[in-house]
Design a protein that fits this description.
210 residues; alpha/beta; Rossmann fold; 5-stranded parallel β-sheet; 4-stranded mixed β-sheet; 9 strands; 39% helix; globular; disordered C terminus; binds guanosine-5'-monophosphate
C-alpha cells in the first residue's frame, strides 16, 4: 500500500475541521475478507437509523455490484477531479485502486445529527483520526489469521494475483490495528454486529478527545 498522497495534507489547513456533534462518525476497518460488508449489512438491519457513506472507487464493479449502492464507480480522471476539487474527506490507494470518502455527504449527515458509518482502510482511518474529534474507530478482526486466509482463498471474485496482494495487505492492516478504539472479532456475524451497535450506542469518547 502506498502512503497517503499529498492532496488532503496540503489543503486541510485551509478548511475548517469537521465536528461530529450532534451526529457521530463511525469508522470501520478490517482486512480484506474479514466480513466487513456482511457485518455492516446485519448492522444496518438491526439499526436502520444508521447512515452509510458510499465511497468513490476506481476499482471496476464486481458482478452484481450496482453503481451508487456499494460504491460510486469512477474512472481515474473522475477520481482525480474529485481529489482536485477537494471533494474528498480522505482517500487512499488500496489493492492498486483508488478509494475515497465524499466529504459533503458526511458533513451533511453529521450536521443533521445523523450517525454515519465509513468502511475505509487503515490509511484513511489514520488520516481522519486527528481531524474528527469524537469519531469512533472500530477494527474488525478474523477469529484467526488462518481463518482469514481461508476466507480470502474462497473468494471467487479475486484473481490469483489479487488474492496474493490482498493477503499481503491484510497482514499489513492487521499489524496496524493497535490504535483503534475498539476491536471486534467476527466469529459470528450477528454477534459482531450487535457488539458494534453496543459500541456506537455507548458512544464512549476516546481518552485523547479534546
Ligand atoms: P473492496 O474493494 O474489497 O470493496 O474494498 C477494499 C478496501 O478498500 C477495504 O479495506 C475497504 O475498507 C477500503 N475502502 C473502501 N472505501 C474506502 C474509502 O472511501 N477510503 C479508504 N481509505 N478505503 C476504502
Amino acid at each position: 500500500m502506498s502512503p497517503l498522497p499529498e492532496g488532503p495534507q496540503e489543503t486541510s489547513a485551509k478548511r475548517p475541521r469537521l465536528s461530529t456533534p450532534p451526529g457521530r462518525l463511525i469508522v470501520l476497518s478490517g482486512p480484506s475478507g474479514v466480513g466487513k460488508d456482511t457485518v455492516l449489512q446485519e448492522l444496518f438491519r438491526i439499526a436502520p437509523w444508521l447512515h452509510y457513506s458510499i465511497s468513490y472507487t476506481t476499482r471496476p464493479p464486481r458482478p452484481g455490484e450496482v453503481d451508487g449502492v456499494a460504491y460510486s464507480f469512477v474512472d481515474d480522471a473522475g477520481f482525480e477531479a474529485l481529489r482536485e476539487g477537494h471533494a474528498l474527506l480522505e482517500y487512499a490507494e488500496v489493492h492498486g485502486h483508488w478509494y475515497g470518502t465524499g466529504e459533503a455527504r458526511v458533513r451533511e449527515s453529521l450536521d443533521r445529527g445523523e450517525d454515519i458509518v465509513l468502511k475505509i482502510d487503515v490509511q484513511g482511518a489514520a488520516w481522519i483520526r486527528p481531524r474528527v474529534p469524537g469519531a469512533i474507530f472500530i477494527f474488525l478482526l478474523p477469529p484467526s489469521p488462518e481463518e482469514l486466509h481461508r476466507r480470502l482463498t474462497e473468494r471467487a471474485t479475486e484473481s490469483a494475483d489479487s488474492l496474493e496482494l490482498r493477503w499481503e495487505n491484510a497482514r499489513t492492516e492487521l499489524a496496524d490495528q493497535g490504535w483503534y478504539d475498539y476491536r471486534v472479532v467476527n466469529d459470528d456475524v450477528r454477534r459482531a454486529a450487535r457488539e458494534i451497535l453496543e459500541i456506537i450506542e455507548r458512544g464512549r469518547p476516546r481518552a485523547d478527545q479534546p
